[in-house]
Amino acid sequence: MAVVSTPATLERAVPVMDNAEVLRIRNDFPVLNQLVNGQPLVYLDSGATSQNPLSVIEAEQEFYEQRNAAVHRGAHHLAVEATEAFEDARQTVADFIGADYAETVWTSNATEGLNLVSYALSNAALWAAQGRGDAGLKDLALQPGDEIVVTEMEHHANLIPWQELAFRTGATLRYLPVDDAGRLDLEHAAGIIGSRTRLLAFTHASNVLGTINPVRELVALGRAAGALVVLDACQSAPHMPLDVKALDVDFAVFSGHKMLAPTGIGVLYGKQELLDILPPFLTGGSMITTVTMERAEYLPAPQRFEAGTQRISQAVALAAAANYLTETGLDRIHRWEAELGQRMVTGLEALPGIRVLGPGAGQERIGLAAFDVEGVHAHDVGQFLDSKGIAVRVGHHCAQPLHRRLGLTATTRASAYLYNTTDDVDRFLDAVSGVRDYFRA
């Protein structure tokens, strides 16, 4: 009799991560092997910036040692090798998110990618009015009466570009509210996303709440309205399998420094048919076909959006990071981090005077927890934890509207990654348990 694989049997077939494996993984990260204030470092700030494994560090170093040159323009040996490494990295990262090669644009970070889309859309109106570019541009041009919809839980990077796009085009910005538990109010979403909606932008996973949003349901609402859909994948691409085509989003962004890669490199995914007609964001060398003293003609994507000298070594290192995550197994990483997240939330909720934001214990979330300590400012909490060798994030986490909605100005956030153990979480919880007594709150 043939054996039919079910989700349960498939999950059992993939070895579950445990502390022993994580300790082996930890050896790949030199920065983690140090003392902070006389105690072993517990790094719980990967939601802001992750650490780099040796394979990523060595990939960037090897590029500079062996093939450093400008890409695309040189005919000499080093230039050819540099170009191959640069474009091979693009293919690797495209495969990592289920995209095609030409749909993967290098940016400095996710913020630049979102601004690229925002400015390209406002330029679309100008180009269409002048009869320039593809005829389809007029369908992308926003105008007064059109609406842009975001959510109340967005990082500023996925809010301010759309505020500015609304200002430049006369469109109206609206948002999907969150409830007290940090979930989107989908019951009212259909009344907000409607016939006037031209663009819907939302985060895949909240960097404050840990909430994983229902992407497919939101995309369906956007599709029914005929809107473009933009996904902020900064807190999902590093931590769980991501297939942008299966999700059917029009654009998606993420940053390398949150997924084991260096700073200064990010990715914009865009559907080929959209990228090829959108006006460029930055202009200059490397993104043109013909230039006269009066005008220029532009290359198709992705080069269309990559003016000037690019982040070559960083792109190579990002590809090495993608390979590291793929080899470890993003489904396994996601399950391990979910376990750590549940351990954090369960432990925090058991402490008196602690308010945890987002889904409670037992509910789905990514491996982070933001919390408020009654009577103690978040910055004081962070400094106290640092004295114990524990690195966390403090402040509003670039989400002031969300904090204001929840009646807070700042929180402390602990965010785990594949190199954190349950012992790390327990040390963190033990330290938090002493905060209120220390400050006599």
UniProtKB/TrEMBL annotation:
It comes from the Bacteria. It catalyses: (sulfur carrier)-H + L-cysteine = (sulfur carrier)-SH + L-alanine. Gene3D superfamilies: Aspartate Aminotransferase, domain 1, Type I PLP-dependent aspartate aminotransferase-like (Major domain). Its EC number is 2.8.1.7. SUPFAM superfamilies: PLP-dependent transferases (SSF53383). Its cofactor is pyridoxal 5'-phosphate. InterPro entries: Aminotrans_V_dom, Aminotrans_V_PyrdxlP_BS, Cys_dSase_SufS, PyrdxlP-dep_Trfase, PyrdxlP-dep_Trfase_major, PyrdxlP-dep_Trfase_small. GO terms for molecular function: cysteine desulfurase activity; pyridoxal phosphate binding. Keywords: Pyridoxal phosphate, Transferase. It is an enzyme of class 2 (transferase). NCBIfam families: sufS (TIGR01979). Belongs to the class-V pyridoxal-phosphate-dependent aminotransferase family. Csd subfamily. Catalyzes the removal of elemental sulfur and selenium atoms from L-cysteine, L-cystine, L-selenocysteine, and L-selenocystine to produce L-alanine. This is Cysteine desulfurase.
